[in-house]
Hints:
Blueprint (H helix, E strand, L loop, with lengths): L10 E4 L1 H14 L4 H16 L10 H10 L9 E6 L2 E5 L5 H19 L1 E9 L5 H9 L3 E7 L21 E5 L7 E5 L6 H9 L9 E2 L9 H6 L1 E2 L5 H16 L22 E9 L6 H16 L15 H13 L1 E4 H13 L9
Parallel strand pairs: 3-4
Antiparallel strand pairs: 1-11, 2-3, 4-10, 5-6, 5-10, 6-7, 8-9
Helix pairs in contact: 1-2, 4-5
Amino acid sequence: MGNADYHFNKTMTLPIERVLECEEALYRAAGMSKEDAYCVSQHLVEADARGVYSHGIQRSSLYFKRFEQGGTSVSAQPEIVKQFGATALVDGHNSMGMVAASYGMNVAIDLAKKFGTSAVSITGSNHFGTCAHYAEMAANSGMIGFCWTINAVNIMAPTGGTERMLGNNPYAISVPCATKPNVVMDMATSVVARGKIVMAKKTHSPIPDTWAKDVNGNPTTDPEAGYLGTVQPFAGYKGYCQTFMNMVLAAVLNGSYFGPQVIDLYEEPEKIQNSGHLMQCINIEAIDNLEAFKKRMDEVVDYIKNGRKADGVKEIFVPGEIEANNLKKAKAEGIVYPMEVIMENRALAEKYNVPEALRL
Length: 360
């Protein structure tokens, strides 16, 4: 995913530290604890810095609407409600998705340190941002991390159907390297995440006709029509099959909402989401020496990147490399934001009486 996936008009560039400071103040003003406000803000700002604007601070207006109308609790805390060996069930108690998911992945990491592997199922959660963040928590702990989630709204039709019955349920895998950034795959099972269509709506930008279909099942370049219609699965029926199984792993397994129970995150902010996730870890040291594995991963990356390039291609990338490059650039130069997102965020800060000095 690159910044070319987005079209911005007027922009503003801000240092990562500045955005994080302002977002944390905003979520503190909503009633979150300092720890939870930082957890959420760090996740959102990291997404923007990696170029994944669909899951960055542009989501705050949506999250605050859910706070205001009772759909999501600003103060609830997750807890382990069942544990057996290397597995656990976490109840998020309707906490923010980032809070519940971070807690769950930390449990998974701790269990994998003890048992060599782990699986932690999370229920009672909410939209949690990017899957990559949690998979990378494991990779940064010397493990291979896996993350599955069910989407926040049914936006995909099964192959052969026209009705919205499934989410584009995302998943991620992250693997550590020795001298290179983690290799991380994070993707929805649609051609693009619906958040990209939302971002296109906000910036009044057309979308490729491969992203979505309108309510009549026709490909569209109008983000409003795509928002109201359905997203297109990647690889046709294969994307449908993948999203079906991701739903089972993330939600059916633990009794979270799925199918007709799934609310519309955007249009029903007053309703409980009861989202589900699954976090898994493989402790590399349980199988082989961690440093030896990381060196082999470096070799794999070099092998792929040194492959023969097609005409017109300057560089071959491995999964997550573009986002890692974006993050490196953002740390040095700041994050480029569209003014629509900046103004929306400022309006929220003003509404919640955030001090002027802590507004974007």
